[in-house]
Amino acid sequence: MDMELPLxxxxxxxVYLNYLKSMPAGTRFVSSxxxxxxxxxxxxxxxxxxxFTSAVGRPRVGYSVEELIAAIEEFLCYNGKRNAxxxxxxxxxxxxxxxxxxxxxxxxxxxxxDSDSEKTGxxxxxxxxxxxxxxxxxxxRLNAKLAIICVPAQSAQEVADxxxxxGVKAILNFAPVSLKTPEGVEVRQIDVAANLAILSSSIx
Amino acid sequence: MDMELPLxxxxxxxVYLNYLKSMPAGTRFVSSxxxxxxxxxxxxxxxxxxxFTSAVGRPRVGYSVEELIAAIEEFLCYNGKRNAxxxxxxxxxxxxxxxxxxxxxxxxxxxxxDSDSEKTGxxxxxxxxxxxxxxxxxxxRLNAKLAIICVPAQSAQEVADxxxxxGVKAILNFAPVSLKTPEGVEVRQIDVAANLAILSSSIx
Lengths: 204, 204
Fold this sequence. Notes:
2 copies of one chain form a homodimer.
Chain A: H1 7-21, E1 29-30, H2 32-39, H3 43-50, E2 63-64, H4 65-76, E3 82-87, H5 91-98, E4 107-114, E5 121-122, E6 128-131, H6 135-141, E7 144-149, H7 153-165, E8 170-173, E9 186-189, H8 192-202
Parallel strand pairs in A: 3-4, 3-7, 4-6, 7-8, 8-9
Antiparallel strand pairs in A: 1-2, 5-6
């Protein structure tokens, strides 16, 4: 993949996948127009998204459903499986650890860490929850290069520093604070409150 | 405010507010350079962000801390208080209902709704959790124009339709599905898995 994939295209991929898998058994071909109509998207958009995968549509026939499913799945895992960890096993950390939608992208959340020893043990989905002191040993052992920060704002920078020292190369940060990270470490922030505020300001 | 505010600026506002409120008691003035250094941001960036508020810095003196706090607070609530509701009181809905960071933006999450009658009652933070059948009556009564969808993908469109019929004008959607909404209804999607996938793909 040479072109950089927009987030918006990437997040439609599981939507396509869900749709294709929900088609009646025995459906062999599907056109981009059909997918577009079913999902309320533009046909050009659908074609552009699917062009990021290896699937090739044929004129007047469309895509082979089976091939298209395989191509999207391959595309979503194109850089292989990755292990991720969560730091902060509060309500949000728990919700993310329990969410099943990461598998589509080849991401496995393998463990969580929390500073509260009462929260350690095993999650309802069978994942280990360790004390934060074990992170420096466990993260390299788990080969987790990806981490999700779900701690309060005042602890987020300290947690990020520890993660980076433990080999983490990319961080999804839910704490409402700008993290300082060295070059070579990618950070994305999801600020739920700020997103809601932007929406609120759009209401006339 | 004539210029459209970027999300990234908006989400720094609570960061500034936290910092200003954490300054030693009696601190009367603060410069943009000082704020920038403390938070690891560029000084020009800080000045641009603060220019969205009504605060005016004075040369060689900086901003009055008290005035700047008031200006940011006023700015964040500039279109008044808004009530919001959550639909889907699973792990994510629970985490969001329990999160205290919306107040900064003048947003009050006043209730949650769920299709599972076993989840109805009162949340740990004292907010009512209603059955989904009550939404059409409760949402207008609560004057909630803002809603957060935390239901599974397959129910999200149906929930969105119901919310819009109940007077909701803006939706924050956590379900991994593209919602079809009429003109005049704003939607923002937060797809945690897709964000994580983008980060994953950035790892060399």
